[in-house]
């Protein structure tokens, strides 16, 4: 009896190890995904989680701009259609000039995108279908928390616990709702080009913009979302700013080995690298190119959002001439059919299996824009990076790579033949290689694979009705109390009273002496 059940367990274990999917206790959960932001790079983080849940047997409904082309059995799409998807759509000319105010401008861009996505999603047919479900139908709602909390209004209608996903490192306004501390001395703001090591000027700027952006979010984005949510669901709906404090769990696409350790409460889970799939065989010609490159390969890819063929002719020629001087083979993700003056060692491709190329042992350097997906893949494969950050979180990702010693920066304005050669020569140094391998080692060796961690927590939140024990009371504190500023204030007051009375005493005794003088006359 005992041994036969043991055998069953062993067999079951073997089957599970084989499929790589953990069995879940109890009946399948009904899970809703709400992803109103139309950026495909974000969805690369969400999709593996939603798909993983479906493959583990749960019933998954997904509202997004990116329907799964080959959905798993329990994966049902509710596509948002008719809004511009932000794929291959960023024109590099926007980034020719960057100033100190750029990150505030970016905030307004995000604010605007957030309003549009909120308005669009609330009016969509996809959401109307979801809202036909009765309250409490879904066991858990998984949503992106990025530039708007609009979807918290939907979660409120559906009465289900919420798990938030962030495809980039946490935004300034994400900390408070999870009860996490904002410590600008060593936690760089996503909008800044800094790592955990900052000098005084950097810390001051970080402190200022951390708090400024947090307040701007509260004063602009929250009321904008409230207006649309209340227009849709009525004026009884609480502010999304309040509803956001009801977030049970926060999955964030970061990992300490890359972005630096941070003090995070247990309701914030780091899942960096979850999108990195098992390796797939490379196309034969690419495999041959990589295998036969005796001096190694340099990969240039600026992600899915930025069109390389909008590079100015001068910069493009600079890269081409630099490549011609190298003995390495160069692979460039280039969206045009042709590349003027293309040298023999340069190979252009409209699309490439970035992750599989990067992990090939002959790849020596990755020229990247510092997007989080590419950055994570470089960390995973252990490849030194020449980073050219352009907007959004790319600056903070790049700063983290540089702080870890595995990247050097090539500024966008400075792209030219000599600067490209200089940056590549630097990144080819063994120091960078060693640092990249060290990051790769801790990035890949975790107690549990990121996907398994995510599945475990989603089931935990569903089974405990929103994991109330996981919520710090800090969520409901004002920040004045949270940082003990009330205590500092009392201590300062007491000190002031003591010092003040001493001063008064001294003044009185000295004053009586001096006032005694005229009496003697
Ligand atoms: C939402 O979109 C509709 C039509 O698409 C438009 O008329 C309306 O002004 C928008 N509302 C806001 C608050 O942007
Ligand atoms: C807060 O979340 C719980 C589940 O975690 C849910 O039942 C409740 O309705 C939510 N509260 C609000 C005000 O939406
Ligand atoms: C890219 O191709 C388009 C048309 O296909 C052409 O107009 C444009 O000049 C090309 N750009 C470069 C840099 O080759």
TrEMBL record:
Cell compartments where the protein resides: Membrane
Domain of life, per lineage: Eukaryota
Membrane topology of the entry: Single-pass membrane protein
One Pfam family it belongs to: UDPGT
GO molecular function: glucuronosyltransferase activity
Signal peptide positions (record): 1-17
Principal location listed in the UniProt entry: membrane
Keywords (A to Z) from UniProt: Glycosyltransferase, Membrane, Signal, Transferase, Transmembrane, Transmembrane helix
Transmembrane regions listed in the UniProt entry: 480-505
Reaction equations catalysed: glucuronate acceptor + UDP-alpha-D-glucuronate = acceptor beta-D-glucuronoside + UDP + H(+)
PROSITE patterns: UDPGT
Coiled coil (residue ranges): none
Gene3D superfamilies, per the entry: Glycogen Phosphorylase B (3.40.50.2000)
Protein name in the entry: UDP-glucuronosyltransferase
Organism expressing this protein natively: Drosophila persimilis
Encoding gene (name): Dper\GL19444
